[in-house]
TrEMBL record, chains A, B, C, D:
Keyword annotations: Oxidoreductase, Purine metabolism
Catalytic reaction equation(s): urate + O2 + H2O = 5-hydroxyisourate + H2O2
Pfam families: Uricase
Job description of the protein: Catalyzes the oxidation of uric acid to 5-hydroxyisourate, which is further processed to form (S)-allantoin.
InterPro entries associated with the record: Uricase (IPR002042)
Class of this enzyme: oxidoreductase
EC number(s) recorded for this UniProt protein: 1.7.3.3
Pathway assignment: Purine metabolism; urate degradation; (S)-allantoin from urate: step 1/3
Family note: Belongs to the uricase family.
Organism: Streptomyces plumbiresistens
Coiled-coil blocks: none
Protein name listed in UniProt: Uricase
Record gene name: pucL
Length: 298, 298, 298, 298
């Protein structure tokens, strides 16, 4: 046979689970989108169609919902760890489980009625995590996407290479805006280690990322990116690696001179495409990079 | 000729304008998506292709950017009023101008650096307005979309009609969630009237809408919708009409019995499609409805 | 009470139904997205939450699936007519039913195996229809969206109004491209009239629209729009009115002079936003316009 | 310093270029979305913000448009090769260039007018390619996305593992539908080798993929996937590896029994989420897998 099977994985993607926890009249919610991906001894289902080693994707979906009841959802990371452990330890043919979760944040609606069971979706960034377990060690990569930030000054861009296709004028005061997509890898990998506080860690990372963006006087988006990553690693001992994918959301100063007006860095056109795309990994010194470089695909 | 021209309009859609206002080291931003639509004496451009009455859509785009400088952007509504008045009064063939604006909200990034020019997009609802001017009177319809809300209890649904295709069991404690799309019409229509405070009005409407959603013990989404509209009109004398389009974002209780588990209103599947869709107008008594009933198209 | 209820409607939106018809080893498919909207005597459900007049949206969903079996799906229009008639005639409180349908086209995969049950989605335009029935007369408005067309020459734009904000140079050879959104209204309104052949009519309209676009030497997108509408009405006696919403998908000639190159109408930048937006109705002479002017909302 | 820079890359993403080639009155078009990504000696721009080694992303955009004129666009692959070679050979700090291209297909509008310069977008799949060059060897991975296919019979699913969370009944005649995302790697890697005919190769791969899907009697989507990959490698000697990401687009048989109807594999509900997701690589025997396993990110 001239062809062979390579890496393969399967599971149920995008299981939307909402968990309500009732503390009397005060309710708490967790709103997740959970994707299960399993791999292992699966050659035969590809070669002959035999499903003898295949736990149906429908079963993986059922397990997500059952586990929301059985284990609750303390955090997306903790929930993913329960799931990954279950699939690897309960099914002999499954060698590795990868659980990806998106989490949508809600906040309470302030009101004068009784009870506390009314919520409005925050709608800012989407929180992410990916749990991978091979029966021996854990890899937890968390992150976020769609966090849009802007500095309206304190950004320059000059001193770059000029070739025959270069027409860009140098800029000494520009808008810097991006839609942050970030992933960070925890150094927790072993059940014997103490687990990080996943919720607290997330809040700290988001805060550091925003503050580093705001406080960096930027000569390039790359420089800002690096500062964001370094701030996270400095501040969060549980994290060894951060990967960013930062589109440079261009805000072009509109030429108002034809109308007899001076545009003193006031009126901008926010462009869609094309956009600069800056991607890089920031590592704790001495650590190995493990997040795939095409990070947008977590 | 067997065919004739009916209603027509044209303009430049989705002009993305970001306006930075510098108050020393403290910056303020307005981030709008402005669409211009003009109509009037435009038969010939359709019949013969003569552009003699046509102000190019490119010019309407330029006007948006020039006006951001000339008039500033105090509010989306005020900005739309400047634009609509300009087109109708400066171009004889143009009888009516309609300006639609989406506004994206930003909040400041808290940090310890100097200056206040760093922002993160809030990302919750998108604010909307539509200004229509025919040279004599004004119609201002503002609104919002993509505001996702949920009550995790205090919602029932029973006592409905049952025909041969009805299988739905009655519910005495269900999740009620929707993604609010709303439009409200101001009774300001004449330059001689005092103009509403557009920014303050918006904040009040949003607050009333959320509180009415939270405080209504719901026997149907229609009832909740009506309470939301009534609260707005009661509270905001400048508004005569509200139109809602509310998808019933179903959260189905997952059947965990096959796994020996009891689902005590804890674990839900958040479904995408199909969804219930509830649409209605709420009016100040004695006022005429003017918002088109397919409100999602503002 | 200071507020009253205005127009209202409700139903289940986006019921995705796929119907397979087996003619031996040859299968046929219809792939629809059906939205039901009902209105009538529904004041109480808004005012008090009483569902005594409410047929649940879940029931309307069940009816869609049951009718796919009971009546088959000869065409989207015919299917919508069955549904609308059912709701209005079987439920006393329901005065009007509006059924909106999107249809996705498939074509057969050519292959050498036996049977004919393999399909690939065409993916070009989405076909649309809206059926409205009030118990007495019918309104059928069909249409399409997302049909992207381009003429790479035979388009000009000049002779337009120039004001102080006009900077656009006149163009004597430009690319004309648009993404057609069209709706057309049939004059069939009464069960006593012979029904049009909905499938054949659609094919004719699409063909006429494309050919009129291609064959019109264009001095403005408005002129092309009118020709497209007039061609349809001339050719299809069953149609009295056409409404178009045509974004002018700008293709800007890239300035290559800085690189010592001449761009002889060869290299274009396809822009996203902003875009011109041209909307108009074309009517059979003597007929009344009934399609809402904000046609994108059908 | 406790942090260091890891892998990084930058460039201008999503340059939309449309190239018209005029062969008298007959025009030809190529419609691409080109993303440039460069990497090399870029530490300083991250550490200090020095742009001394940075060719601006704006320049990479200009180069895309200039090259469309200078080299034409024979195929997306050939165009990407010109670009990648240019960046690596002309800029000393740049070690590797990766060019990703999406291509949108158009077909001619048949009409009776003169000339052949009118087109309608096909709208089926989006064609993809990725060219990577490090100054020595080439990697070309082409592909497609959003090709939606369905078999309305000849698919079964049974004999799978059953655990305590398994409720799925076995199926002996089901609909099998998926939205194909595929990437395939060419074994051309050296300028000394003869280059494949990129256009012809694409047509052959798409045809093989569709036919293998149609002709495989399927016991699992994995089996169908493997047959699709094997068919491509058998048929196209220039390709060594294929990676698929196949969502199982579930079509659930609707239970019509409550309405006294029998659903004889006729009426289906097409579900959105969750969906099964089957991903695998098929390799020419003896070849090494190089396409990243999270292929959806090409």
């Amino acid at each position: 046979m001239p062809t062979i099977l390579g890496q393969n994985q399967y599971g149920k993607a995008e299981n939307r689970v909402v968990k309500i926890t009732r503390d009397g009249a005060t309710h708490h919610i967790k709103d997740l989108n959970v994707s299960v991906s399993l791999s292992g001894d699966m050659d035969e289902v590809h070669y002959s169609g035999s499903n003898a080693n295949v736990l149906p994707t429908d079963t993986t979906k059922n397990t997500v919902y059952a586990f929301a009841k059985e284990h609750g959802i303390e955090s997306a990371e903790q929930f993913g760890i329960h799931l990954a452990r279950h699939f690897v330890t309960s099914q002999e043919p499954i060698g590795t489980a990868r659980i990806r979760i998106e989490e949508y944040a809600w906040e309470r609606i302030e009101h004068s009625g009784k009870g506390a069971h009314s919520f409005v979706r925050k709608g800012q960034e989407t929180r992410l995590t990916q749990i991978t377990y091979d029966g021996e060690s854990w890899e937890v990569v968390s992150g976020l996407k769609d966090l849009v930030v802007m500095n309206s000054t304190d950004s320059e861009f000059w001193g770059y290479v000029k070739d025959k296709y270069t027409t860009l004028p140098e800029a000494y005061d520009r808008v810097l805006a991006t839609q942050v997509s970030a992933r960070w890898r925890f150094n927790w990998s072993d059940d014997a280690q103490e687990m990080p506080d996943w919720e607290q860690s997330y809040e700290q990372v988001k805060k550091d990322m925003l503050q580093a963006f705001a406080e960096t006087y930027s000569l390039s988006l790359q420089q800002t990116l690096y500062q964001m990553g370094a701030r996270i690693i400095d501040s969060s001992g549980e994290i060894d690696e951060v990967r960013f994918s930062l589109p440079n959301k261009h805000h072009f100063l509109v030429d108002l001179e034809p109308f007899g007006l001076k545009n003193d860095n006031e009126v901008y056109f926010a462009a869609d495409r094309p956009y600069g795309l800056i991607e890089a990994t920031v590592l704790r010194d001495g650590c190995e990079a493990k997040i795939p470089v095409d990070v947008t695909n977590l």
